[in-house]
Amino acid sequence: MIKTVKLEEAVGTKLAHDITEIRPGEFKGPAFRKGHTVCQEDICRMQRLGKNHLYVIDLEADEIHENEAAAILADALAGEGVVWENNPREGKINLYAGRDGLLQVSTQSLAAFNLVDEVMCATLHSHTLVKTGELIGATRAIPLIMKRAIIERAAAIARQNRGVLTVRPLRRARAGLIITGNEVYHGLIQDRFAPVLSSKIQSLGSEMAALAFAPDDAETITRAILSHLEQGCDLLLLRGGMSVDPDDVTRHAIHRAGATEIHYGSAVLPGAMFLVAYLGEVPLLGVPACALHHPVTTLDLVLPRILAGERIGKLELALLGHGGLCRDCQECAYPACPFGKGA
Length: 343
Prior knowledge:
Molybdenum Cofactor Biosythetic Enzyme, Chain A, Aldehyde Oxidoreductase, domain 3, Molybdopterin biosynthesis moea protein, domain 2, six-stranded mixed β-sheet, alpha+beta, 20 strands, elongated
């Protein structure tokens, strides 16, 4: 509840509004902000500002001030790798990445949270790569005074999955690359994929630990896969043999190597012929030719998620379809664009 009190009786109360100070040619702004607890030392200054009465907050037992409410909400929303500063202003608190990594947002929990009256939370898109200290979300208790039960209900929803926002660190992978194709293996053309794929791996903090070339022969490709595993590679990329030509045998080689789940095809353009398979816990990524000609393809959408510990399967590849169409802009602005943001 908000009530009016005489200035001399306001000590210990909280202001229900900002008090503005104007010094001509010098300053115009809040001398005291909404929510400020009035102390004895404030009285003389407020008198000089022409205040004889104040609107103050008189909370009932079941009510809560917006700033206290915002702190409760921020604490509930913030999962692992997310930090927030406990200095709410007008019921709003920002949430920041507490480390470098991949932002993951529980979109269902976020929607359920925002369905609660008088609270809100806005975030960056899930699966966004973020740096320490980067703004990733904000929450606000909308009215000045709220019922405590509303805040408790919203906070309980946010805490169901240990927070709505998390930042997952990317592991440092030892990647192995296998370039397939008779034309490259026999020296008829020069490979251009290794530098491109190595750069993508290194930009995410991993290393390209092994490189092999193989002809269009399933047995040879299988041996290269097993050799990379023996060398300690925990992530494999295979380039070539992803289409439907008779010589494209990479998928067959992956199966021969012992992969138990193979997902071929993604709902993304460019990158429809992308492949994900697993040998135990080791991901195998089949990279189609478009990765050479387009700066961003399915690989760029999936690789950070794999390095953050997510296991990509058929459902994840299917969900990429919403927002999975690249506009092929003359100047690529990714990731500051809609591509890959719908999943």
